[in-house]
Amino acid sequence: MISFALTVFLSAFLLFQIQPIIAKMILPWFGGSSSVWSTCLVFFQAALLLGYLYVHLLHEWLSPRRQVIVHGVLLLLSLATLPVVANPAWKDVAFASPTWNVLAVLAATVGMPYLLLSTTGPLMQAWYARSFNSLMPYRLYALSNLASMLALLSYPVLVEPFFVVVQQAHAWSVGYVLFVVACLASAWQSWQGVSSELERRPASSEPVPRPPLRECLLWIGLAMTASILLLALTRHLTQDVAPVPFLWVLPLSIYLLSFILCFDAPRYYHRRGFLIALPIAFVALDQVLAEGGMPVPLLVSLLCGALFVFCMVCHGELVRRRPPVRHLTLFYLMLSIGGALGGSLVGLLAPALFNAYFELPIGLFLCAVLVIIVLWPQARPIWRWLLLAAVAVYGGRLVGISVDYVEDYRRVMRNFYGQLRVADVSEDDLGVKRKLLHGRINHGEQFIAPEHSRRPTAYYCEQSGIGQALLSLPTDRPRRIGVVGLGAGTLATYGREGDEMRLYEIDDQVLELARSEFSYLAESRARIVPVLGDGRLMLEGEAPQAFDLLAIDAFSGDSIPAHLLTLEAMQSYLRHMKGDGILAVHITNRYLDLQPVVAAAAAKLGLSILVVDLEPADGDVFCRRSLWALLVRPGRVASLQAAITSARPLPPRPGFAAWTDGFSNLLGILK
Question: Transmembrane ranges (predicted)?
Fold first, then answer.
């Protein structure tokens, strides 16, 4: 019994520990977008589905001892795929089709080990049930989810802050070898425990009726709804805050906690209590969707609390309807189908089909409908009518929220990198101001009136760090200026006759909107050279550009992607700088303090660093609060500080380790 529990625990721990490891490893190759995590979850759920299908077919078609032989051979073959380190060659093709390339690199790197790990839980439970003739296997499922949650929660606290990502991958590979040994030991115990009578008796001869199709569809629906809400709410968190491992693993840990509680013992799902909490969760989430600018602790608490209620209801109802052990593998197969369908809707179909984040209202409505379906047989007629009326009203409210996503905007677009919206707002006597929004984050704005249209605004106004840095550049010769991250193209307004500005942008939709909805690029006096692709990767492949100034202004949600702030990235930027050039990094952020990150990198590279923290005066419609870091060689710092009197030196934080491509610790810079 102990060997089965140990194998299940170890497999589940490794199964979920590899998820943030591999996602963090490939995140820089795909622009640091929050969609990378959603796509990774789609892959993991699809692999889980294949693993459960494999176990179901193995359980139905082969005798117990033949199952041991087949599975043992596959385990040994999977060792040839170690270590699980992604091939850097994938960086060269990542931009072409990011969604499918994420899936391809995951399949090539962790496909075989992950598939076999995903089979362990249901397979060990099936072997355990045959060996001991007990209903205990469902508690082994709870144990596996406990291990999964521990793996996720330990990553941002005990793994990410202390080990570079390649070390994490090698340590995981060692753990996988130990798992193979433990699994083979359990298989040997199962081989010895199978009686000759059981060996001769086919599993399908047990007189237990097969669950009807409608019951299987309900299992799929409940699992799919929980999966949709998990990914949709995680996307909401990571886009508007930051695509950081902590905000990846927290919702997923809550999702797994609901599995643990529901499968460990039915009493943890108090049906009446959670059904009362469900409409409260709907109302709380309605407030989150309707209001912006909510404090981060409150935002995270409301989203995670609502997700816990949704998952407890979905998974609690699943456990109430679980079949006899004879059909255990079919039950888990239906759960994995539902999870994969939900993940595919959010991660693959929604970005291609929708121009806004409609998958969250869809998931909420499905949850409400499924509750009515499970309650319908026991409900009195009056309650049935009340439930139908309630879900109709709630459906109308969700339609209204969905309409708000796109109503009153000039343009609404969406792809792998997120949702873009263009909005016009009135600014008293100055006329209409046009904004470019990524999610809820402002990525640039422009006044439409001709007398103001060439004036830089927001984080790029003349009083900002980047504005003053650009105005400090020599005027007696043409300048070369690079910008990583286009936005609305505001910085183009600083271009003068003879200047060349190279604008690096990963999202073709951003470039299209900057050209069609804003006039900064068209009205610039400089020669504008757009470069489509990940800015860092493009710079790494180009000859030295001899920039007078290079601005790093690429944002994913409210945060600059971590791979643009590492030592390796900074070294790449310096290769393109003139000796007296300025490297300007936009580090404005509501949730993360990025100052120690750039300060540590500057200290490692022997650079001096100044920061300009602009807090505009009340009523200033041209400037927004901004924080820019200006990195220069030591011989240039005195003249730059004389030109920008508001700049202050930034000393490195004692003990703060510089970020590298293999190491970053976002928990250490949370505000």
Answer: 36-55, 67-86, 98-117, 138-158, 170-191, 216-234, 246-266, 273-290, 296-318, 330-350, 356-376, 383-403
Angle of helix 245-264 versus helix 137-154 axis, rounded to 10? 160
Q: Is residue 417 part of a domain?
A: no
Q: How many domains does the chain have?
A: 3
pLDDT band at 436 (very low <50, low <70, confident <90, very high): very high
Cα 158 to Cα 156: distance, rounded to the nearest angstrom: 6
Is residue 75 within 8 Å of 180, Cβ to Cβ?
yes
CA nearest to 562, candidates 169, 18, 26, 28 = 28
Same domain, 165 and 192: yes
Instruction: Show which of 176, 201, 226 is a domain's final residue.
Output: 201
Both 161 and 219 in one domain: the answer is no
Please give the torsion angle defined by the CA atoms of residues 60, 64, 70 and 71, in that order, rounded to the nearest 10 degrees. 90
Residue 448 lies in a domain: no
Please report, for the domain that includes residue 484, its CATH number.
Answer: 3.40.50.150
Q: 317: burial class by Cβ within 10 Å (0-12, 13-18, 19+)?
A: buried
Kind and range of the H or E run holding 630: strand 626-632
Looking at the structure, tell me whether residues 240 and 179 fall in a common domain: no
Question: Are 37 and 66 part of one and the same domain?
Answer: yes
Q: Given a cut of 90, is residue 145 above it in pLDDT? A: no
Q: pTM of the predicted model, to two decimals?
A: 0.80
Residues 74 and 221 in one domain: no
Task: List the one residue out of 638, 548, 627 whose CA is nearest residue 588.
Answer: 627
Domain end marker among 201, 222, 249: 201
At residue 433, the pLDDT reads 95
Cβ atoms within 10 A of the Cβ of 321, count? Answer: 14
Is the torsion defined by CA of 670, 566, 640, 491 positive or negative? negative
- Alpha-carbon distance 188 to 94, whole Å? 43
**In this structure, are 283 and 320 located in the same domain?**
yes
**Measured between alpha carbons, how far apart are the two ends of the chain, in Å?**
47
Task: List, edge to edge, every strand of the sheet that includes 527-532.
Answer: 527-532, 500-505, 480-484, 547-552, 577-586, 626-632, 608-614, 648-649
- The pLDDT assigned to 570 comes to 95
- Give the pLDDT confidence of 265-309 residue by residue, as tens digits: 667 889 999 999 999 999 988 877 765 556 667 778 888 999 999
Query: What are 447's strand-pairing partners?
Result: 433
Cis check: omega of the bond before 83, within 30 degrees of 0: yes
Whole-angstrom distance, CA of residue 362 vs CA of residue 345: 10
For residue 320, the enclosing domain spans 211-396
Is the same domain home to 650 and 542? yes
- Strand 527-532 with 500-505, pairing: parallel
The helix-helix angle for 213-240 and 245-264 (nearest 10°) equals: 150
Does residue 440 belong to any structural domain of this protein? no
**Which pair of tokens denotes residue 616?**
């505009």
Residue 220 and residue 193 in one domain: no
Among left, alpha and beta (phi > 0; psi -120 to 50; other), residue 61 is alpha
pLDDT more than 70, % of the chain = 90
CATH of the domain at 130: 1.20.1250
